[in-house]
Amino acid sequence: MSFPKNFLWGGATAANQFEGAWDEDGKGASVPDHVRGGTLTRPRQWDKEIQAGVYYPSHEAVDFYHHYKEDIAIYGEMGFKCFRLSINWARIYPNGEDDEPNKKGLEFYHNVFAECRKNGIEPLVTISHYELPWALSVKYNGWTGRGVIDAYVKYATTLFKEYKDEVRYWLTFNEINTGALFYGRIMSLGMQVRDGQTMYENNETPIQINDRFTALHNQFVASAKAVMTGHEINPDFQIGCMIAFVQVYPYTCNPVEIQMVQQIKQINNWFCSDVQILGKYPGYMNRYFHEHNIHFRTEPEDAEILQKGTVDFYSFSYYMSNVFALHPDKETVSGNMSRGMKNPYLKISDWGWQIDPVGLRITLNEIYDRYRIPVMVVENGLGADDERSEDGKFHDTYRISYLRDHIKAMKEAVEDGVDLMGYTMWGCTDLVSASTGEMKKRYGFVYVDKDNDGNGDLHRERKDSFYWYKKVIASNGEALD
Ligand code: BG6
Fold this sequence. Notes:
Number of helices: 15
Bound molecules: 6-O-phosphono-beta-D-glucopyranose
Structural class: alpha/beta
């Protein structure tokens, strides 16, 4: 057994990290346009007012807006079957809920999809990838206000109608489960925080926690409504959820520790997809809310909406695993999502993420066993500081080896019986890092000439991994060496 014939091989991006042109052709500001660049040790900071002379990485990003033809042609050359991108909400509705959509914004994505078709590539669109229009963030305190549900449904409906014959695969929200955790406040839920607050500052009051769960609930309702509307507009649409899945292991075989880890996994990994696939809040979360005195706002009609608007497939990002212990007295590591113990069996990336391909096989099996619906890996990859070799090229063997091991793990999972639809490697062209705002943390098969301070002429170059992935796709995942 091997990868299915129509397997969706490709790459993934997000508008705020890739497109640039943040205020061109009528686009409004989005939340990430207010977030400064940082590094692993200097966290990104949020500014209520965009400051003159400060560098905001999303403003130019790597300028896909003006390079899309070249970029998509390169994907065509690599043999991509699928290209995951997000649509920037504020490019379509500059203030999030304007009366009419911005024609130039709509036209841009028509052009992008036309290029995809020309190159035999199926687009996979994330409707909202950490990109709430700034005006909505201010007016409703991000997703806390119920008005954002209507604005989102209007925006999604516009996309579904406009691109009905150009796009078949959709994701309602990127990594919706980050909203269940404190660090989802800014990027995922677009909530207003203290001026100058940094991205991973954990200073929520009980009221703010309640608001955060209200905001997440509103996203669930918005997602469910969009799924229903999408299916009415085109019954062929395949609409998925998207979860940041960080695999978690217990440090010992102590059952109390195993139960603790099970609960961490329920809250971090399973909660949101249980709602989006099974159509209601799981019992373990109702208990958690009760025991933690968390109260969020719902409306009587919401239960039926959640029940009816369940998604067609499960998609997720997978980069790492973590270890948790009852008595965490060991060395710790941290990714942008989580902090856990050092796993002595695993290596870590330069940014501290524990590399665990076997964990991907475990994860795929767990997901499929739970839901029995098609699954897609829509993000996976290695962030590394690529250096040009003496021969002038980028020999990113470490990236090839990371990807090879993860693709092998997917193959094992397919042999285990998992219905796997596809794989879009994260950041196929170098782009801005979401967690640190750096350019230096590169994922791409394609290098972009730009540094952390914004210097560079943005030209593109093929790395060794480009040629390797081309062969992987041509052989449908057989030629991995
Ligand atoms: C995921 C996000 O969390 O991980 C992406 O969906 C992000 O937006 C990716 O870029 C990799 O994380 P980072 O922080 O290395 O860019």
